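Hi Q.,

Before the meeting this afternoon, I wanted you to have the adenosine-5'-diphosphate prediction in hand. No need to reply - just skim if you have a minute. The sequence and ligand are here:
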Amino acid sequence: MPKTVGVAVSNATFHFDKLYTYAVLPDQEPLVKLGSMVLVPFGRGSRPRMGVVLACDAEPESAKLKYLFDVAPVSACLTPELLKLVHFLKARTFCTYYEAVKAIIPYGAQYKPSLAADGVTPVLQKQLVRHTELLYRLTGSLPAKPKPTAKQLAAVALLSGGPRTQAELEEKGISRAVADNLCAKGVLTAEKVNKSIDLYANIPQSSEPIELTKEQQDAFDALAPQLADRAPHAALLYGVTGSGKTLVFLKLIERCLELGRRALILVPEISLTPQMILRLKSAFGRRVAVQHSALNHTERLLQWQMIQDGGADIVVGTRSAVFAPLENIGLIIIDEEQEHTYRSESSPRYAAHEVARQRTADNGALLLLASATPSVESFYAAQSGRMQLLRLHQRYAGQPLPSVKIVDMRAELAAGNPREISLELEDAIRRNLKAKKQTILLLNRRGYQTMAQCEDCREVYKCPKCSVPMVYHKASGRLLCHYCGSQIEPPPKICPSCGGKLQYRGFGTQKAEEELAALFPEARILRMDQDTTAAKDAHEKLLAQFANHEYDIMLGTQMVAKGLDFEDVTLVGVLGIDSLLFAQGFGAYETVFSLITQVVGRSGRAQSPGYAIIQTTDPGNPVLNLAAAQDYDGFFEQEISYRKLGLYPPFCSLCVVGFSGTKEPEVAKAAARFSVLLRQQASAQPDIPLRVLGPTPSSILKINDRYRYKLTIKCRNDKKFRELLRRTLGLYEQEKLPSRATVAVDMHSDGDV
Ligand code: ADP
Ligand code: ZN
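Predicted structure with the ligand bound:
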């Protein structure tokens, strides 16, 4: 009998996502273990498919066993901890095994199906070749005769300080020929090593020791013991903006490394990685790796391999970095933990928090959530004792929080100011420019004008593929759909339904930039939005230029609102967030509160006091006023009673089952059928608490020519509930309805889908 394995294959549907048994050829045996990437013949045509080995010595399902086509090298194998996460994701998020594998290993580390040189045999091919370089080491002494050359002496002097790569030698003017000649003499040895591109090699290490303030020290003292005891812990660091949470991180990371353990730091957006890396690199020097989607294939793969080979002690990155193959983790930090970007919106639909919690359990590590505006769920968990709560009440060096003024834009219009920038804000910007201070302005809408409306029939010009208005981008002279990317060029002037004249209205970042330039011709304005930061490293460059005072005003979407730390920003203006105030979903208020508090907190972080102006057409709005007062406790109290009353998280879990397809009646029918099946299952198990709402059309009915419906379930997210849902999904798939729609389960939705 040959050895057998159980393989999860790619492109499986939920219902057919099980382990398939394959036989292993004798020469493949040493390579095959749990977590191996393999290529298998699948289905009647035995077409090659990617797979991952999830069981050894599997039971053959039939007498005619197929053999594996190919096995990837052991270095591409999932580590035991990551393998566990595959099962975890499958159980928690209703994804397929292979979707979980793809989320855990970045594309660069994966193998793809290919053909061998004979043109017929299916084999695995590495997507990227491994880059190597030469590393020289001093292993002997330089003979006195013949007289050594200056270059030889320089090489020996340099290498006496430790091994150096060929590139590093060349930088110092020592050629490969010189180095190889020394090797021939037995003075040096050369070794091929994997190239680790140190993406941030030019950041100098600072020798300045960190001195914590009393409050920061207290937080550190309370947390430090939890790094040492090898038991899982969770804590929430709630500190006002500018209180120096990052300094507490740095001290904790330092302790974690002293204990011989490793640290993983998550930030919510790519734009925040450069600043975090800068701080970590200057505090700890080498051995910091990054993982985020703005890296190119090669960079991402090399960074990933550096982590897997044990070459990194600290990993920084966005959501997906939570899967970094880092071993012996002592500390996981989730900064700005309330951010939505920590939840994945495509399969597997996981939240970084749950994966981090699982990894802290596996590693006996400390999970530290941090924010100036914690999510209501996290703060509630901390308040009720399920997480340790630490507070930083004061800004570093005792600066007051910025004073905030709310400006009523209806009154502004009535008083005859047609512009989107109020007189009060204009005045404040002018004063700030004079004082040579910097200003940050938030406008959460990119483009020039945000809609085109017919003067006659009032119809708004919508994307042909999506049920959302198209946005006019003046720079590129076209209408753009922010959901599917459709473009219309040139922008139409006539209403397609009635032939009336289209009127362009609304105010996006491009138009705001124009208005600002007209008001302040002398000001240097930096616009930060998806359009100006699309290029690689653009974020980093633009932020560095702003820090360097090459600009006076930074205007942007929410990417300017969070985490940034610039000494000379003393004024923050919120040009418009009203659309967010009226958004749906139970988390809408939390989002607004957090966004405003965060952006206001960018002001007055160093010596000079900060000021902020919020423009709105709803000046009496309680959430706005609490945010203006930066009163998190007040906000939390109000929000938690609303959540309790309406039965929203944290008092239940919200599970949204989404249905999508190209024909609306079929999608609606599929949703209705699923709902019947679910209700039947639920009534058979009355002990499982749940409430089913819907089905209803989603908030945006159509995206990219696909109609969307949803079923909302208020439930307790436990094994029993997930089992029930899994059974329903199985039944639904078995029915083979003629009107099939794609089903997606999201356990982390805020309901606004
Ligand atoms: P937060 O993340 O809490 O908003 P930061 O960690 O960015 O705040 O700190 C705000 C500013 O105060 C930063 O410029 C930081 O360098 C400075 N700062 C905070 N604590 C200290 C400290 N103990 N020593 C020196 N500088 C500090
Ligand atoms: Zn569209």
